[in-house]
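Q: Start with the shorter request: fold the first protein.
A: Done. Sequence, then structure:
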Amino acid sequence: MEVNGKRLLVCDCNGTMPLDGRALAAACAGGQVPHGGLEVHTFLCRTQLAKFEAALRQERPVIVACTQEAPLFTEARAEAGLDTDIRFVNIREHAGWSDEAMRAAPKMAALLAEAALDAPAIPMVTVKSAGVTLIYGCDVTAIEAARQIADRLDCTVLLSSPGDIVPPSLADVPIFKGTLVSAKGHMGAFDVVVDDYAPVIPSSRDVLRFEPPRHGAVSSCDLILDISGGPPLFPAHERRDGYLRADPRDPAAVQRALFELVEMVGEFEKPVYIAYDGPLCVHGRAGRRGCTACLDACPTEAITSAGDHVDIDEFICAGCGGCASVCPTGAAAYTVPARETLLERLHTLLATYARAGGETPVLLVHDGTHGEELIATLARRGRGLPAHVIPFHVAAVPQLGLDFFSLALAYGASRLCLLIDPARDEETAGLSSQADLANRALAELGYGTTRVVLLTGTSPDGLDRVVRMVPPSPTRMAPFSPPKGKRRTAARALGHLHDTAPAPVDRVALPPGAPFGTIAIDSSCTLCLSCVTVCPTGALVGTPERSRLAIVAEACVQCGLCASVCPEHAITLQPGLDFAPENKAARVLVEGGAPCRRSGPGRDDRQSASDRGL
């Protein structure tokens, strides 16, 4: 059987999970059993391996519904001298090993359909390291560490406030004294500034002695091993490529760092995690500071202000995705995978599940390490995932935001459970704020307060309790495909959720900082239209010859530039979601020099946000 032009191979793993080939084929094909159906193998990775090899020879991509034996299948392909594309999808731990496995066919079909989608290439950047290494310590531990790897790397030792150290009998590594006062850069291009810098005196006899020190010495290196025992040199230091840190009192930790260090020589490919679209950025205009959401969210300080826009250092970026989560316009967009691919996967997954007869789907969003391990433990030692709980893998959970949450719910998900790796706790502030924003808006519409749930530090038992909570009733599945643009996605999905809400209201008030809303104008406005000049999204529309100022609320991101530039301080931000139809067009705020009440738009001012290209 083929799905999206790819040959599908399934196996019941030696009879350990129930698979109905006919039902699964019908679910994958939208109700009709394709000719020949779907063969269910029993021992594909061993006695039936020839069938796998035969599928490869058909020169079509192959999807194998097994991840555990991926290395074996990959090796078999190489031994057969073939280069057919293979993809692997986990239906065993995710669906088949469960006390509800007999009802899991819709979920299995959804997982298989998602795996069959075409995935575009991820943009990459090349990182080069020649192995020039700075080992920063305070005693003989740093010297011994450098001597261990001196035949593999070009090492220099910098000792901060060294005590009495016996001079080595062989000067096989350069030794200096100094304190690192600043460090910046990334693997292959670190720059450091050293105070109290001094080279060792070669004639040191009983203890190491150093020449007169100087401040502000500058140097560069490819790699840094920090065993000084002091504070880390970088924020989120464990995610700074090329910077390793170990406790000098822990010999095992130092040795692990050395093993890692010697492998960091050569050229490496690193994903470009964030695509930045400058024209969409609302960081500033005309020298005025506007949105700083991405700068506030970035734990590695890879994002810096550059006047009206920001700079994102792709070499420092560690891929947490926090900036993409909080960016109000989509100017910072995650690329692993691209947003369009992520939303296509979401739509395919939930649409296939619904067509196959699945009900009340709960989306369990997780990463590929912590999340997979918890799910596997639950499947092997517990009851497994319920049939309605569908795992959804992403590279980094903190990349997600209101647009994704609202679209998932609009596509019929009854709840989203976001499984957070405890190692990523410091990266989740933006994600948490976006989840709170979604829950607040949904609660105002009558959906309750637990549609988006963050799970941090979860044990298998804790995960089991959460996923077995009775799911709330989902909304009717939205009939549209994923819209283009982050704000359009959020607006379209939230509009659907409003239209199908248990208790719809025309306006939902949101907390300060929320990226939706309008503005209020008081009587001091002189219609100078400075606010129109700096508005980065075109939400404000001014017609001086008619003494009129209007706003397209759908385009307002609450960046505050209009308020900051207003010479009369006449503008107040009013964050919120406006669902009334007239708010999709320009609404007059001031006319003839007098502020208007929340009246409908004038005939000449009607212009939708989509018409304005927002």
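Q: Next, the second protein, separately.
A: Sequence, then structure:
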Amino acid sequence: MNRWLRNLRPSHQHTAFSATLLLMSAIMASRVIGYVREAYIAWAFGAGPQTDAYVAGFTIPDWLNYIVAGGTASITFVSIYTRFLAQNKEEDAQKTFSIIITVMTAVLGIGTLVAEVFTPQIERHLFSGFDSGQLALCVHLTRILLPAQIFFYVGGVVSAVLLSRRLFLFPAFGPLLYNVAIICGGVLFSRRLGISSLAYGALAGAILGPFLVNAIGAARIGTGYRVSFDVGNPAFRDWVRMSIPLMIGVSLVTADDWILRYFASGSVGDITRLNYAKRLFAVPIAVLGQATGQASLPFFARLFGEKRMSEFAATVNASVSRIMAASLLATGLMAATALPLMDLVYRRGRFHFSDSETTAIYFFWFSLSLAFWAGQSLYARAFYAAGNTLTPMIASSIITLASLPMYSALNHAFSIAGLAIASDLGIVANTVAIALLLHQRKLVPLEGLQWGELSKAGITALVAGLLGHWVASGVTVKGSRMSDVQSLLLTTLTWAGAVAAGLWLTRSQLLRDLLNRKGTSYPHVAEKTAEDLSGGIEP
């Protein structure tokens, strides 16, 4: 018990295992609150023109943050800052931190002002299917949300400082406050401000969560900041060199949401229904992929920086194998429970059973690509840890541009469900491309993947999902809570039994490895790496 409580101390320096566990727990809690947020929005506003405008209102702010900031806070800065810490160059680390904060805050401030001015013109082209009322609402909401990107970015850089020092508690709780603020904004001010209350809540959440929480954490460890525009600093130039590919490239991981909104804008309510399906799908992505990816980067960077290449390759391959295998098993359950899950989660107020049926179709198709969403997160961070952001971003940009005709064609052939299928195919191509590039550069050989475990998990997932669906087909899901719960329970119990039997019959080592402290994500090197990073302090 004392060991677990120690992990919750703000000053506790985490191992790879404890960091992954903490981030998974915090992200799961954040997603639960995120579900409450989405359920509240569905209850209060349904799936219609207002909610389409609200979801679309995030597009320009997200785009601005991506273009100007990219992944420079959580990816490139972590690599540089960690390198300084490993070399005991504390002063250089602090100086680089101050320069990046100062320069990028100024750049984002200018970008925000420009975007505020030209929002109507941009969104008129992005969402040509909106009528004049929807477009005006979307412009209004976008202008509320735009300033939040400054706080997201600054908070992200401060969070990277904490992550580099293996202090994960404060960064873990930022998203929780962000989601709570959105809910509070809606509950407290929706009668007076309508759906705009959600946008004001998001702005307040960006200030309180990602920014303020991390700033408090950084202050506690003595992180200093001084205004500095020293753009000639060598470390800053190195950071720019690594960051530019992330700023100018377009990754399908981010662009997928923008593309979905663009093609779905001509059909009332479909942007919202796609968003609900994607947001619930984001829960396992965040738990299995995002948490492991965030926790892995400092450790990947340390292994690569010390030229421990065989351990680096083994660590990445083991992480990818286990996360993708676990994701395949989760896909079997998600696909089989799509309709009762969507209906139980979202149907209330103005969100009707017909909306649940449509959203479930989208969720089913999204669920098929879970393993690839989780795997690409780790593969990308392997490249970033190696100081190479250009290669994966060129590959991702080419795949994104090449995918656009596919989105259009599948949308034309299968309507909105075709967009979800296109999303699956795009992320598969993205993941395979990055894996092949790592293999080609002899950084992470593909033969190091645990192909046997992946095959066992895939076959088990397919059988378990089909059995779960067949058993639950005896319960007709028709819009009642009782039928939803009965179907979910039957499917889940059948799936769990089939998974247990399948893993036992195939003699899979997956559960043992996932539950083994040293085997979780970082076999053989997790504890040694943690000891190196902490300078011998007991983790």
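Q: Describe the second briefly.
A: The chain is about 80% helix and 0% strand. The two ends are 15 Å apart (CA to CA).
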